[in-house]
What we know:
- By secondary structure, the protein is an alpha+beta fold.
- It has one domain (22-87).
- It has helices at residues 3-20, 72-75, and strands spanning 39-41, 47-49, 57-60, 66-69.
- The strands form 2 sheets. A two-stranded antiparallel sheet has the order 1-2. A two-stranded antiparallel ribbon has the order 3-4.
- A hairpin with a 5-residue loop joins strand 3 (57-60) and strand 4.
Amino acid sequence: xxxxxxxxxxxxxxxxxxxxxxxxxxxxxxxxxxxxxxxxxxxxxxxxxxxxxxxxxxxxxxxxxxxxxxxxxxxxxxxxxxxxxxx
Length: 87
């Protein structure tokens, strides 16, 4: 597979993951006591990331604990929440 085909495949896969999201915020800690500081809730009660475009990498929780934000496809095998659309 050439580079252009690979990038196109990755972009398509990312779009598929985005469409599955229910915006529950679980992957960002909404179900626990110490969510990411960038996790926010809109007027409809759906969660979103305030820094979504630049979220990948080192982030912190509300209590100051550091963690690495990763693409959902890397979390998928270890998701602890059964209601997540990616489970």
